[in-house]
Fold each of these.
Amino acid sequence: MIKNRSEILFIYDVRDCNPNGDPGSDEPNYPRIDESDGKCWVSDLRLKRTIRDYLHNYLGEEIFFREILLPDGTLGTRESIWDAYNGNLFDVLKSCIDIRCFGGVFPLSKKKEAKDDKDKKTKAKKKEKEQQIESKSLFNGDNEIFETTENATEEKEASAAIAVQPKTNFHLTGPIQFAWGKTYHAVEVIRHEGTSVLPSKENKMQGTITTSYKIPYGLIGFYGVVNENIVVKEHFRILKSYFSGQKTDEEIVSVLLSQKDLDKMLFSLWFGTKTLKTTSKMQSPRLLIQIVYHEGNLDFIGDLDRKITIKITSPTYIANRIDAERKIRNISDVALQMDKLLYFIDTYAPLIKEIRLIQDKECVCLYCDEPVDISEYFKSKSIAVINLGDIFSQFSQKNSN
């Protein structure tokens, strides 16, 4: 069970693809563009899907939120998957690493809903009887007083019925949460048209015309937090209450987020991004930093992704900043300005237990406009540095066998 708070900074880039389509756009699968600055958004759900898919497909981990094809040809629902675990939260946490990491929303079992409904009706009848007795005691021969009391009783019953509506879902907050990612620069959106081999309807003599939207390049930053209190307090407390007398404390701790789970998640974040090569996704991980704080410390830097900017290093003769950013086409065209982030890490150094990181060789970091080896910089500040590549090797070797 993890006991330390930590923060995650993940930077990756995309090339000639749509990093995350906007389902609410007027155009089909149009990139999520912030009209105020021309930058491209990527949802946390897209990032978590990358992680989940790699955990399941490459590491063989059981995942709760995934597509399951049922015998009748339909896809399994959240309810059917929940029922497959007999509505048992302990078994779900024990089996599914994505729930231990990110949490989830689960339907209440039908038995629980029936019991809640029965309890609600019993309470409503009891309340109605009490209110009728109260109304009669107020009656003193004046019909107006009795009618007014009856109307008030009806209003109370209506309010009570609304207040005791049974919950249909149970929300388990995950200890690992990511904010939405965003490119560090304005992007250009290019429309592509083509034809598919197969027609969309019968008796058609040619394939269907298709339209897609891509950005030539995007350098994207994500920020995440690992909140140990969610594990130590909330998840433990919920399971302790849920399985009172049925599970020991040791059994409960065994199904909560562990350090190995966290390492697998980071491994899948890096290599899941690296291996996701499809028509709509061409990605490369560039920098992953995890700042781990001492146990018991509640303070942290926050918004790591916003403490980095980029410097355009490729020759450009475009005076307008946004137009110049839209011409970025490769990681070699930019460098990461680390000054602000390094300043905050210096400030928070006494609270930091260690920094774990992995950096792509093509990713250049700058400090005071000069290239800097951030690993060596942290060591110079007496901060312990762990190479995530060494941590990842245990999973790489297992995956290759």
Note: Confidence is low (pLDDT under 50) at residues 111-116, 133-166.
Amino acid sequence: MRGQTAAVGVIRGVRTFMGNSVDWHIRTYVIPAGGASFDAIADWQADAVIHNGRLAESHERLCHCVRGPIINTADTGLGVPTVCPDMRRAGQAMAEYLLNLGCDHLVSLLRPVYWGTRANQRWQAGITDCAQRLGVEPIHLSCRPHGNTFTEDDHPLLGMLRSLGGAVGLMVCDDETAHTIANACVDAGISVPDDVAILSMGNDEYHCSTSNPSLSSLGLPHEQVGHRAAALVHAALAGESLPTKPIRIAPLQVVPRASCSVSFAEDETVKQAMAYMEDHLHEGIRIDDVLDHLQLSRKSLEVRFREARNRTPHAELQYLRVRRAKRLIASTNMGLDDIALSCGFGSGARFSVVFRQHVDMTPSQFRKQHQSRA
């Protein structure tokens, strides 16, 4: 199993399926690093095995040790009965979560050895699907952290996070690696979540809670995987045929913690100002409207935004308008003039000027680029 949380979840799911009606004796076996012998499993004379195996070789060896069905819980594409988390939908859910927080850039980071090649590909494909649909081009990286360290000399990630302008969302394929990266960001002077929001996957309580800051993480349906895998074992032992296509189960919800705050500003007044701007963009509001709502002086708001967001309130308002416009252009068939009005621009000409200042292309060019990519 990939981590204790996954193993415990699968076993819990199997036991839930058993309830009081199925009398099975369960034994667990952790395959040692370096390719283990399966002699212990052969000695058990197991009737069936639920196995997290990513390699065809290990599955073939296991087949020689077990006389009954083998259900895999890794998305390998081996053509064997498989129940596993839907990694494509996991990627989509993570990208959508960070984009809804207001991220301008998305970066994904995986450990090639963790989930396996096929699962990793599906995860990053899901991220790309969601991000491109909303007008964002994600950056995909892989890593092999050196022990418990992760420095700029080891990998280009930290340097990239520094160089990207705007709010950055970093998706990490597992909580252990995310824990290491969060610590590395603190050591490198990169603030989490102010500079980078980190969202991991697996919701391992130990790694998520002991990270500084604590990690937001997408829960995976390990218990449901175990329950469904047990159902397949029960069916096979009863003589029923098993599906050859993988059964992929949707991920759970994101468990929010400190690494992904509600906004990228810690100042409560700035958060309130940004929320008001978001809610009233379509009304063509001005900064004076924000000041009236907050009962605050212009100078005070300017200082707070400079400290929290490193830009003026006016620049923030324009940024929010352009961000909404990008999403509407990428995900709807609305006319550009209608989009301009819905984002609070006074005219299509003004919309085009401001959009080009932020995106380095006109709204029509942005739409054409997105359509050619789709």
Note: The CA atoms of residues 288 and 298 lie 8 Å apart.
Amino acid sequence: MKKLILLLVFALCLSLLGSCAAPSNSDNSQPDSKNDSETVTDTPKKTDNEKEEDEEVIDETRAQNLGETENIMGEEYVLTFLDNFSRSYLSTSNWEYCPEWERADRGGKWDPKCTYIDNGKLVLSVIYDEEAACYKSGAIRTKGIFEQAYGYFECSMRVQNVPGFWSAFWMMCGNVGSVGSDGVDGTEIDIMEAFNAQTYGINHALHWDGYNEHHKSEGTSEYREDLYDGNFHTYSMRWSPEGYKWYIDGELMWESSAGGVCNQPGYMKLTLEVGSWAGEINLSDLPATVEVDYVRAYQFADKQ
């Protein structure tokens, strides 16, 4: 009897020892949250520039919808045109590509493939097309889509950082080729031309009476390294029956009514152009780009 009891006690001890030694399946299937799972690292904080690229920052002080009013430098305006380039493609309800004719003195051409949208910005590029043996660049306009006489016109642009081509925000108003009425019936208004990344040149100008022997113009230039600093700057123009005013980052740069103030509607253009005015171009710098954050146009509130 004692032997039987001893055998039973011995068997019970062996059973208890076995259950303590074997790990449970449930414990073994769950990795340690710190060691066996994916490595956890601190997420780096984004810079202000990265935040702006990831999400559209809405300036609540500005009109966001057509027909809304906005005070600009003490005057009331109504928003008549707005493109923030928030789509992944160029909006044909706002723009068309400029025709592919030869430009300036280096045989460059405007080409639709040099215009695209990237990360909420309009990108205009300059390339050298080896097959066509010519320079090509981006250019768009609002001709036949949006045309307006008088008001306030503005874009935010990051200009190029290499020479050989210029970027421009400008308007073609009325019949610029007409001769005999000065600029009243037609004027080219150059709101801005960033014409040389080596000399940091910015130009504002008026052109009228065509582009041949009767051509007339008046303009002014400034040389501003700070406008070629890789950041966006605003370029705008106020057009009233009394004259034109040009602004950079809200600062008045020039006033003129040369040729008589045009009284005909005009359309806006954003273009790049290769030419000697912009200095020597280096193929190793291409492709090169200019970015536009937005384009806005307003009409005087009392004219609505």
Note: Residues 2-21 form the longest helix (20 residues).
Amino acid sequence: MSADAEAERAEARRAFAACAGLADADWEALASDASPRRYFRLRRPGAPSVLLMDAPPEEDLAAYVQVAGALRAAGLSAPAVLAEDRAKGFLLIQDFGDATYTRLLARAEADSDPETERRLYALAVDALVRLHKAEEAARLDRPRYDADLLVEEAALLADWALPVLLDRPCGAAAAAEWRTLWRSLLDRAPATPDALVLRDFHVDNLMRLEGEPGVRACGLLDFQDAVIGPRAYDVISLLEDARRDLSEGLRQELLARYRAGMGAAMEPAEGFERWAALLAAQRHAKVIGIFARLARRDGKPAYLRHIPRVVGLLRRRLAAHGFLAPVSDWIAAHAPDLPALADAPPPSQPPSQPPSQPASPGPTQEPAVQE
């Protein structure tokens, strides 16, 4: 954005805040992430702080308002929308503070406090149980997380990870084969109940809200790209996170907590486990591609530090589930050095040569906050 355009945008933000009665507020720009949105904390003496969301014109703020309302109706904590100007891309929303799971877990790790980790994850699992039992939320008018979208997301590995991380293009035939195998795996997956899938349910988007009862103590962020799809996706997003390691013992404990919490509403174990394995592999492939794209296209190489962890998660899933052999075979044929990235130091920069145009770019909807 040019300096003139930025000045014009800043003036529009201040005019929006003034219309909401915040002309005299102090402004604090919050750190940006992988999304194109910007956030500002507005403070006034004697009043709770609020956040101003500044979204690009192409973003559908109606989706944020819709999903926030559905989450709150389900008894969960999503920021209340206090004022809006959808045409200009501005929302004024409730400020949940700074107690993100990421910060709290880092502090717990520094203090050698595994019990805090256990409590925070248990609360997040309980929030998912509440969401997955909310029948109205599952009927929300949102796009479906169908095979078309899941295949296009998985294709990000072929389109971006190979040229950026491995310094080799993925040819059109190999890219088409990658899409075809994912389509086949998804077409053979068993039926599964629908849920409202938040798509980025992980520690960076969860907050601990002091004073709130039960699952309302888990604050939810970045849900505007929610879709209707398999329950297992957000469970995997939480328990196989690109950002931090989770012990296998705690992961199994939390899966058992989820199953117990769902009770009679839980789908058959075999079907859930197959979807969990399939979506874990799909998500890890997608995230590897997204991190590569963020580094190259968006100039955000910091996310490359997570590549060894995500490749390791993908490698373990492929080794554990025979039905995912087509994915393993494709990687062996077209990206044989990809699995070794799990054991290598994270790259600090992508290769200097730009990748060739992705073989089959296609429209890909992705979560708004991606590492």
Note: The CA atoms of residues 27 and 42 lie 5 Å apart.
